[in-house]
Structure formats: structure tokens, C-alpha cells
Amino acid sequence: MFWNKSSTNTNQTEQLALRLQKAGFNAQFKPASLDDSIESVIVGLPSDEQKFVTFVKLSFASTAYQAMKKMGDPDLESNQDIFDEFDHLQFYAPLNIKIDSSHLQDVAQLNEKLNGSLPLIGFNLGQFKDVTLAFRHLMLMEQNKVNLKLVQRTIDLIYFLINEYAPKIEAVATGQTKPDDLDF
Questions:
Q1: Of 136, 121, 125, 157, which Cα lies nearest the Cα of 89?
Q2: 81 with 119: CB under 8 angstroms?
């Protein structure tokens, strides 16, 4: 169930992809590239039943930190290893929901309401360049140790939560309903 980083040839992210593949998940290791400087695992989700999400992207915070250090991010302390004992595994699933700009505040209110009642946080509204919706969860873990069963169950739970609540988010995002009209 748990495993340690066992080989210098296979890093933790690659090993996670291989273990998820062996467990029957449609998982692929995605090395760092010019488009995305952070290596990750892409887990494909059954898309025939799902119109809101097709994949979950998994990445380690320590890997992201190292990529940002290499790019010379001035906000990072270069002489400190902040991932000495613990790391975070991020689960990120972008949602295919268009938001009418006049309903942006309603979607933010709904996300807050939802995240307060879910077993995993959650639904996220990003407003950097474009407005995006995603499900983003961080799992704390001991450095270089991954509980595969917990990762599998987290992916399954994220898929369930998106199936359950994305239609409600879409209804609010398109103005068909208001957050206060929904019960959870």
C-alpha cells in the first residue's frame, strides 16, 4: 500500500503513474516540457458518462517547487528545502463549464457553500487570465511515501463529486438557478 522511492532511475511521479496503471487506471506520466514545467501524472476518467471532466492531473508540490526554483522565481527561498519531511500531492481536474460573467459571484458563492459540506475540498474558481472552474485537492503525505489506496480512493471520490455537483454548478454558472435555491 505504501512505497518509498525505490530507485534513482524512476522518480516519484513516474512511479505513481506506473502504480496507478497496474491498479487499472488510465494513467500516463507527463514529463516537464516547455508548455508545462512541472512533471505530472494524467489520469483519464471515463468520458462517455461525463461531460464536465475528462482527466485528473496529479503533481507533487516538491516537484513544482523545484521547477519554480529552476526558472528563478524570486519569491522562493533558494537555500531552504521546505519539503524535508512532508510533501503535498495535488489533484487538479479542470471542469468544462462556461461561466456567464454576470453569474461569477453566484458561482463563487456556490463553491464556498459546496466546499463547506464536501468530504474533500474542492471546487475552485480561478480568475487569473481567464475565469476557470476546477476541482483542486491537496493531500498531505510523508516525503517520498505514497499510499496508493488513498490516492485511488481520492481519484474515485473526485470523480463522484464532480458527477454529483457539476450539473448544479453549471446551472448557476448559466443563470438557470441561484445558489440559495440549492440544498446539499
A1: 136
A2: no
Task: Give the strand order in the sheet containing 86-94.
Answer: 26-30, 40-44, 55-60, 86-94, 131-142, 123-127
The pLDDT tens digits of the residues spanning 63-88 come to: 777 776 677 666 666 555 666 778 88
C-alpha cell at 69: 526554483
CB 104 within 8 A of CB 169: no
SS3 of residue 115 by DSSP: helix
pTM: 0.85
Angle at 177 (CA atoms; ends 171, 178), nearest 5 degrees: 115
Please give the backbone phi and psi of residue 133, each rounded to the nearest 5 degrees, phi first: -115, 140
